[in-house]
Each structure stands twice: as C-alpha cells, then as structure tokens.
Amino acid sequence: MPYFCEIKKRLNEIKEKDEIIILAIETSCDETSAAVVKNGRIVLSNKISSQAELHRHYGGVVPEIASRKHVEAINPIIDEAMNEAGIGFDRLDGIGVTYGPGLVGALLVGLSTAKALAYALSLPLVGVDHIEGHISANYISHPELEPPFLCLVVSGGHTHLVWVKNYGDYKVVGMTRDDAAGEAFDKVARVLGLPYPGGPSIDSVAKKGNAQAIQFPRAYIDEDHFDFSFSGLKTAVINYLHNLKQRNEAYRIEDVAASFQQAVVDVLVSKTIKAAARFGLSKIAIAGGVAANSALRNCMSLQAQKHGYELFYPQPVFCTDNAAMIGCAAYYNLIHGKADDLYLNVEPSFSKITARYPQK
Ligand code: KG4
Ligand code: ZN
Hints:
This protein has helices at 3-16, 52-56, 63-85, 104-121, 130-141, 181-191, 198-206, 231-246, 253-278, 294-307, 316-319, 324-335; strands at residues 21-26, 31-38, 42-50, 94-100, 125-129, 149-154, 159-166, 169-175, 283-287, 310-312. The chain is an alpha/beta fold. It folds into 2 domains: 2-135 and 320-350, ATPase, nucleotide binding domain (Nucleotidyltransferase, domain 5), CATH 3.30.420; 146-315, Nucleotidyltransferase, domain 5 (2-Layer Sandwich), CATH 3.30.420.40. The strands form 2 sheets. It has a 5-stranded mixed sheet, sandwiched between helices. Helix 3 (63-85) runs parallel beside helix 4 (104-121), helix 5 (130-141) packs across helix 12 and helix 6 crosses helix 7 (198-206). It binds 5'-O-[(R)-(carboxyoxy)(hydroxy)phosphoryl]adenosine and zinc ion (ZN). 5'-O-[(R)-(carboxyoxy)(hydroxy)phosphoryl]adenosine binds next to helix 6 and helix 7.
C-alpha cells in the first residue's frame, strides 16, 4: 500500500485507540534527544545527549559542530530511548519531531531521521513547533493541567507570554523586542568569565551574592504592554564592569550575577502577573531553559500565591531542550488529526505560535 494510503488508515485507527505511543526527536540546538511518550503525558523514556561541553570552548553554540554531532548521536540515542521504554518499533503510533525554530543544520538531522523512520515504519509524521514543545512540558510534570492558562516561555532564543487558549490554540500577548532572557544570561555570564551555558552558572553563583547590591535597569516594567527588552540590561552590566575595571576597583562576581538575575526575574514576574490579570486567567505556567532558574521559580511562586494564581512549572529536565516535550505536543497534534506529509521542511526562524504577533 502506498505510504499516504497507509497513513490515512493509521489516522483513522488512532481515533479508536486508548493507548497512543509516540517516538519523539529533538535536535533544534545542541541537545540530541529521543523520547517515547504514551498518551501525551506518560514518559516511557527521555534520553538526552548534550553537546554543551564541546561548545563551552567557544563560549556558545557553533552551528556546524552541532549538526555534525547530531549526525553521530541520533541513531544511538533513538536506540537507547526505545530500549529504555522496553518496546519494539511495531508498538509505535507516530513519529514526532521538532521542525523549527532552531539551527537549520541541526533541525535537518532530526527531521530527516524522523521522515526515514515514518516512511520505513508506515507511521504518521508529526512536525512540532519547538515553542509548543516547551509549553507542553508542563503537561508532563502536571497531569492535571488543562488549558486555558498563561505561559511564560523563556529560553535561549525566545521570551514570549503566550495565552494558551486550548491545545494547539495560542495567542502571543507579549515578547522580547531584542535579546531573549536566556541569551542575556549567556552573554552576561561570558563577560563575567563564567562557563557556557550561562544561565545555570549565574543561577549557582548568584546564590552567594546580594541581589540588591547593584540597581540594574528593569526595562518596560511599569509600561502598559507585555513586551520585554533585555539588551539594555546586558549593556548596563557590561558598562558597570568596564567602569570598575578602568578605575581598578574590585567587584564581587556573586553580587553582579545576583543583581543582574534579580533584574531579569523582576521584569518577567511583574509582566506575567499583570498579563494573567488582564486576560482573566487563573493559571500561570512557565517553560523553557530559563524556567529552571531558581530565583525565577521562587519569585514567581511567591507572587502567584500572593495574587491568587495557580502556578505550574516543569521539572528542570523538561525545562531545557528534551524530546519528551516534543512527544507530548505531537500527541495533541496527532489526536486532533494534524499529521504532516514527507515534504515537511525545517523552519529555522518561523514559529506558528509567534507568527501572528503583534495581533490587532
Ligand atoms: O530551552 P533551552 O534549553 O534551549 C532553547 O530553546 O534556547 O534554553 C537554553 C537557555 C540558555 O540560554 C541557558 O543559559 C538557559 O536556558 N538556562 C538557564 C538556566 N538553565 C538553563 N537560565 C537561567 N537559569 C538556569 N538555571
Ligand atoms: Zn528550547
């Protein structure tokens, strides 16, 4: 039977099944990951091979190196994920894969592998938007969570406030106008001489610092919109260090890290709480690598409790890039009949979630 006829049959069968198992693949940046996810929320395996050590020498991700390492890691990581899940390929109902946004060469490795598997196994291919994946990580850590809710997505490439109206139905209500929050962490860590990735380094050093030591700017904090800007803050940290160095004055890295982190957290928390009130949402979620930040989690918890919102955040392993979150998003796409054909291409800089922002 030709592939597309087989898929039509499979999609019809899926509607009747009460157990749907997806093999998911994520290769958008510097993590090669494969996961097996049952019914969108039960993670049977989630294997991650990180290249962070390799890119550390260069202070950031080198795209060509990332692609080459994905090629080496992808088949073994899929085998590991299938072995840990303890199932054969014949038990799968679909292949989920990140098709964008991300690094073009890195995405191509995952998508080509997913297409080959989908074709060889006659399984539906489900392309997943990376940002939708990050949001969906919350469904894994909180089986009771259902839309609608407000989600703050904070990663290395994105800072968005997303109103999750339903599965697959999103409205962006605010986003960064320049640097992403994670990007600011990475850049400030670099000028402080801390290792890549900068977020976890600053998080840990800041624990020994005074967050009130330096008053860095909090862009747009009192403005009546939900956009962010972190590039001025980054420049303020660089200027602060530069001035002290010129005057030969000492500074405590711990205090600079803690004060910078507090400035980022204050803006993220304040805008999120205000947006939840503006759009009448009672549930708030956070997602993406920066959602692993301890100060953000603490501060958001305090403010959510104070203002009467329910707060959700994924376990740290599901905050940073992983394939389980892609498997979760793929499940909701698949049960709503959204599968892709084998002409699906990577979308390095396009996200279906953010495409219509700003809305009228
Ligand atoms: O979601 P992610 O793994 O990849 C992207 O989609 O970008 O996010 C990576 C980003 C990096 O900028 C990293 O520094 C940041 O998340 N990050 C953190 C923490 N852990 C990772 N930032 C602040 N605190 C952390 N604990
Ligand atoms: Zn990510």
